[in-house]
Specification:
Blueprint (H helix, E strand, L loop, with lengths): L4 E8 L6 E7 L4 H8 L17 H18 L3 H12 L12 E4 L12 E6 L5 E5 L8 H17 L7 H13 L1
Antiparallel strand pairs: 1-2, 3-5, 4-5
Helix pairs in contact: 2-3, 2-4, 3-4
Amino acid sequence: MQLTGIITNFNKDWKTGKAIVTLLLDTTNMECIEKLSKLEKLTIAIKKFIKKRSLDANAYFHVLVNELARHYNISDTDMKIKMNLDYGTIARFEDGRIKGCKVPDGTDMKEIYKYSKWYKSDENGDDCYIFYKETHTLDSKEMAQLINGVIQECENAEIETKPKAEIESLLKEWDKK
């Protein structure tokens, strides 16, 4: 179960020295919380909340990618992959390690994971790849980074984009949502 909420209080257990944290969760499902409270021990991950991107961001991203694809005469899918590998976000495990793999030389990585970027061959001749996040999993900050890169590519190719003020307004809207 994944929930959002805020820390409303924290203290220290003076006997054990461990932290005591009170949370205000964004749920009214007390039955579920009651079940969790009866468990002997839980794994708890608390991290900064980042709002998910809006569908407007996704739609604008695809419009720009499709324009670039037509300009360079390649498929929309290939351009989307290229832009994600150039401006997207590296995929990481929860502990911060970078996701990737090592495969025999000549392996077609598109059959394994389309958002993978070659970065070196090892001493055995195997190819090492870094994985990038799929675009639908990006949060607002990551999507803004991707779109800003795509906008720069469009400007370099003399493809019209929204005015900077409109893009800034769009970014502010993503943050509000």
